[in-house]
Amino acid sequence: MNELHWLIDMVQTIEVGLVVLDKNFDIQLWNGFMENHSGVSPNSIKGSNLFEQFDYLPADWLKQKMESVFLLKNRAFISWEQRPYVFKFKNYRPITGRADFMYQNVTLLPLSSLTGQITHISMIVYDVTDVAINKLQLKSVNERLEHLSQTDGLTQLHNRRYWQICMQKEFDRHARYGDETSLVMFDIDHFKKVNDTYGHMAGDKVIQHISHLLSQSLRETDCAGRYGGEEFAVVLVKTSAEDALKFAERLRNKIETTELVYEGKPIKVTVSMGISDLQDRVGNSGQWLSFADQALYKAKEAGRNKCLIYKSKA
Ligand SMILES: Nc1nc2c(ncn2[C@@H]2O[C@H](COP(=O)(O)OP(=O)(O)OP(=O)(O)O)[C@@H](O)[C@H]2O)c(=O)[nH]1
What we know:
Protein name: diguanylate cyclase
Cofactor: Mg(2+)
GO biological process, one term: cell adhesion involved in single-species biofilm formation
CATH architecture of the largest domain: 2-Layer Sandwich
Bound molecules: guanosine-5'-triphosphate
Enzyme class: transferase
Number of domains: 2
Organism: Shewanella violacea (strain JCM 10179 / CIP 106290 / LMG 19151 / DSS12)
Shape: elongated
C-alpha cells in the first residue's frame, strides 16, 4: 500500500510531464509537471479532450501518431529536432533563458489494461531545452566558423583556398556534363602606385571597392574569390568565353568609371582581365587557371585596362 502511495507521490513531483489519454484523447491523468507548466490543474482538466483543451496542438499529425500507438501497440517518439515542442510551455530555465519556450522530447507509450488490451496511452514529456539550446548554439558557431574559414576578411569574397575548391567543382561538373564554363582572372593595374601615393589603408579601400563592384555584377551561381593581394578570380557557369568577355568588359568599364573618394581625395583605378573557357585542350583545373593567367598577362602587356580571351599558340 505504501508503495502505491510513494509511486503516486513520485508521479506528481517528477520533473517529467506525464499524461494519460483514453481512445477519445480525453485526459485521464495530468501530473504536477504538466500542471506547473500549463497552469491547468489536474482536477479542472481531467475528462476533457486534449485537442479541445489545447487548440494549438497539431491535431491531425498527433492523432495519427497516437492512433498508430493504439493499433501497433508500439512506442512512438517525437524529437525536438522534428518539432521543437508539443506543449507550448514557457522556458524559465536560467541557463538557457534565451529560449522562449521549452524544447521537448515526447514518448507515446501504449498502456495495457488488466485484460491486455490497449485502452489508453501515456505521453511522457521531457524538458530538453538545455540540450537543444547547446546543440543549436554549437551548430550556429560551426556555421560561423565554416563561413570564416571560407571567406576573405577584407573583401568578404571567397578566400583563395575555398575559391579553388569551387573552381575544381565547376571543372569536374564540366568534365561530366560538358556545360560551357569560363574563368576570369583580373588584377588591379599599377596598384603599387596607389599604395605608394595614397597609403596602404587607401589601397585596402580600393580592394574593397572593387570587390563591391564585382559582387554587384555576379549571378547567384557565379563563384568569385580574392585570389591574391590585388588579384581576383571568378568562375562563370553556363557561360561561353564570348559571354564572359561581355561580363568582363562591363565590369572593367564600371571600375574605370567609378571613382573612390578616400579622405576627400578621388582615386581612380583600372583592371586588366584574362579569360579562359573550358574546351578539350584544358586537361585539368590548374591548366585552366594558368590559361586565364596567361591571358591576363597579355592584357597587361597590351597596355592594361583591357580584357583578353586566352588564345592557344597552336
Ligand atoms: N593595400 C594593399 N596592398 C596590397 C595588398 N596585397 C597586395 N598589395 C600590394 O599590391 C601591389 C602589387 O604590385 P605589383 O604586383 O607590382 O603590381 P602592380 O603595381 O599592380 O602592377 P601591374 O599589376 O603590373 O599593373 C604591391 O605593392 C603589394 O604590396 C593588400 O591587401 N592591401
